[in-house]
Every structure is written in structure tokens, then in C-alpha cells.
Amino acid sequence: MSYFSMLTNYLGPSSCAAFLENGREWPVALDGQIALQRCRDGYQGDMYRRCQNGIYLNLVNNCTRRAIQDLHAQVLNGFLNTTEALSRLKQETTILTTANENLLTAGDLQNIIQILDKVIKDIEVNSATIVNDTDCFFEVTNNILDGNLTRSWRSLINDNGVGADSVINTIDRFISKVVNSSHENWNKTFDKPNMFIEIGQVDTCKIIRFPSAANTTDQIVVGCGQEIGNKVFSGGLFKNMSGMLPTTSNDIDSLNSSINGPVLCFSFHGHHHKTENVRISFHVFDRNLTDPSCSFWKTNQSGKGLWSTDGCSLEQFNKESGTVSCHCNHLTNFAVLMSPASTSETETVHHRRLGVLSIVGCSISIIGLFLTITTYVYFWRAVHSPRSVLLVNLCTVLLLAYILFLTGVNSTSHHALCTSIAVLLHYIFLAAFFLMLSEGCLIAQMVLRPFDKRVVLKTLLGISYGILTIN
How far apart are CA 69 and CA 104, in angstroms? Predict the structure, then answer.
């Protein structure tokens, strides 16, 4: 850690500077504050940015279109049945997803999720409409998982930690509600641009492969055993949610990780099934990323989730073909998280080299300053003068600064020690600057007023060290 980073930690909260964006002026805000802006005509709600560590975070657009807000109110108040609600929601999301401008906002997405939750709660399975309702439902979820909406999902993640994982949970609840309430012979697939859903039924089996029909290298192979009879399963392949899901994890470095492949999920419905043999294969999006981690999405009691590796292990990573194979002992939503290890390795090498340069440079400076002080002290009778006094003081404080920096550069994990070192370095360098200024003032006096014999050394030293002196 450099002196400037230690100084930043010591100084504490900072403010975000005002700036103009798309005709909107964001004001100065203190760390932790939220700046609000009104929505434009045709929208309800507000948009805001949070000031964090002196930088405005990404815009959170909670503005909701009046059309979606009205639909939200009608559904929640029971004025529309589920078929009408899904049909209108499909129409609205299709129009807004295919538009080049005025894409769905974070506020729109939250309202749509609430509408779908209400639909799941109220849906009455009807053999005459169930196939059409199911297709409409998946069309809506496909629309809100469009890649153009990544920025809106990302703003929700930054705001409350919840992203498109809510959509996956909603889809799973919808399938469970429909399948458990229907007597349909389920063997159907729903192939959408952003996801592939398969609902199947088996009598007895040894293994189930999902997807069974889609032409893809991404696959889940589930050992179901002979005990399964006439049971329904569902699988989902979400083709690109890498920017829509949080990367928080208890097991890996989530700050430098990203979802580098599709998200796969698999469930059995209508019974409790303990699975001990699940193999998953992924194709990766970016082959430059390494260090794959087989992860599943784990939801806690508060409803928030994170990625975990419990019960999952990496079997193989073929960088040439860009495939990752994993083994897990349970069913849920799976993904492979990878980190820019090559970049991290390069940065580590650079940090090491800079660290060596810092140590070598500071050591040379320490030796030079020590020799300077020793020489002046040895010949003090010959060189004694106010300028010499200032120079020896300057060399002494710089010597202390370099020694303090080298001894405390790796003490960032100890907050109290790091803060103390930052305070001392701040004081020492201020003293050094003022000592240099004092020497300049002394030289100016000697040049401009050579016959002025007043001794101002004590005053200059007092000012340099921040000590009031009285002559």
C-alpha cells in the first residue's frame, strides 16, 4: 500500500463531484448519500445514484412506464385474469425489448416480476389454455432476460443485491404450480432466444440428459435411479446471464470473478428426490479467463442468495475446446464462475516489480540521507549555519519517512496500525515541505536583504513542525 492510499484511508469519507449527464445535473453528494432525480413524462417513480467512496455508482432507474404501472395495478387488484394478464404483459415486453431506445428500466423489471408472482399465485390450471399460458409466460421471461437489459439488471444488483436470479426462481415456481396441478402428459420444450426450457416425464430411468433435443455442449446428466416412476422433471438453460446475476460468493474471490457460461438448472416435481450423481458440462464465453469454479445458487432465509461450491467439484477444464465439466451431489441452479487469472498474474508480477523498485529506491535514499547527516555532523563546526540546521532537519524527517514507509507498507490488514502510519507520514511529509519552504525563505533573505542579521531560524523551525514559537 502506498502512502497516498494510506492517506486516503485516514482521511475518511469523501464527496462525489457534480456532473452533467444527458441534460440532468447530479449535485455534489457526501459519501453514502443518495441523489434523486424525477422521472420524465410518461413514467412514475424516480431515478437515483449513490455516492460511494467519492464516486457516483451506476444509475438506478426506478422509473416505471405508466402502461406497465397500470397493468401492475389491474393485476394486483384482480381486474384481469391470468390469461389476459400474460397476454398483455407479453405484448408490452415484446415491444419494449425490440425497441432500440426506451428499453425496460429497473423499475419496469421489478413491476413485471411482481405481476408474474401474482399470476403464479392466482393461476387456475385449465387444459384449454394451459399450453398457451405457459408459452406466454416463457415469452415474457425470455423478453426480460434479453441481453440489452443487462445494464438495468446490473443497477438492481448494485442497489439491493438481487438480479435476474429472481426470474429463475419465478420460472421454477411457475413450472411447479402448473405441473403439480395439471394432469397433462408433459413432454414439451420451449426454445426461446435467451433460454431453453424442457418439461419431461419418465416412468423408470437410469439417467436423464438435459437438454435432450437442443444442439448444445451445455448439458446436465442426472442419475435418477430405478425408484422413479411416472415423475415429471424440468430443466432450464439460460443462455447468457453473465451480467444479470450477482457474483457474490462465500467460497471464491467474487470481486474478480464472472459467470463465464450459461446457467443450467434441473428439478424434479411432485416428490422428494435425493440425487447423488449430477454431472454438468459448460461451454465458456471467454477462454482467456481461467481458474473455473463449479458453483450453485444458494438462497438464504432472507431471500437473498450467493454462489457456493458445497457439494460441487471441478472434473475437467479443457481450455482448447472451451469446456468445463463439473460434478455435484444435488440439484439446483448451476454456473461456472471464472476469474481473469492471467490478468491477475500479470498485475501480481507488476506489483512485485514495483515493490522491489520501491524497496531499492527507498533503501538508496536512506543510505544517501544517512551519509549526508553523518557528514554534516562530523564537520559541524565548519559548516554550522541556519541553512545547515534546516538541511539536517530536512534529511532527518525524510529518513524517518522512508523508514516508516518500508516498515508499514505491508500493514494494510491492521486498520489501527495502517491509520497511525498514514497520520505519521502525512505529518512528516508536511514538515518536509515546510522545511524546504523555510530554506527557500532563508535563501531569499540572504539574497534580497544581505545586511539583515535577524535570526529567524527558530521561527522557521517552529512553523515547519507546527509548533508556535515566541522570539
Answer: 12
Of 409, 404, 402, whose CA–CA distance to 368 is shortest?
402
Residue with cell 397433462: 184
Which candidate, 386, 396, 397, 398, places its Cα nearest to that of 441? 386
Residue 471 CA to residue 465 CA, distance in Å, equals 16
What would the DSSP string read from start to end of 339-387?
E-HHHHHHHHHHHHHHHHHHHHHHHHHHHHHHHHHHHHHHTHHHH-SHH
Q: How many residues does the chain have?
A: 471
**Which phi and psi angles does 313 have, rounded to 5°?**
-140, 155
Confidence of residue 367 (pLDDT cuts 50, 70, 90): very high
Tell me how far apart the alpha carbons of residues 35 and 32 are, in angstroms, rounded to a whole number. 10
Q: What 3 state SS string does 251-268 have?
A: CCCHHHCEECCCEEEEEE
CA separation for the pair 296, 263 (Å, rounded): 9
Architecture of the domain delimited by 58-184: Alpha Horseshoe (1.25)
Q: Any idea where the domains of the chain sit in the sequence?
A: 58-184, 185-339, 344-464
Which residues contact residue 106 at a Cβ distance below 8 angstroms, ignoring those fewer than 6 apart? 60, 61, 62, 152, 153, 155, 156, 159
Q: What is the pTM of this model?
A: 0.65
SS3 content of the chain, % helix, strand, coil (to 5): 45, 25, 30
Query: Which one of 1.10.3720.10, 3.40.630.30, 1.20.1070.10, 3.10.20.880 gives the CATH number of domain 344-464?
Result: 1.20.1070.10
Q: Which tens digit of pLDDT belongs to each residue from 203-245? A: 776 678 888 765 678 888 887 665 556 678 889 999 888 888 8
C-alpha count within 13 angstroms, C-beta hemisphere, residue 26: 24
Could you tell me the CA-to-CA distances from 122 to 70, 136, 144, 404 in Å, in that order? 18, 16, 21, 68
CATH tag for 185-339 (out of 2.60.220.50, 3.40.50.300, 2.20.28.90, 1.25.40.10): 2.60.220.50
Encode 151-169: b = buried (16+ Cβ within 10 Å), e = exposed. bbbbbbbbbeebbbbbbbb
Residue predicted with more confidence, 136 or 155 = 136
User: Rounded distance, CA 188 to CA 234, Å?
Assistant: 10
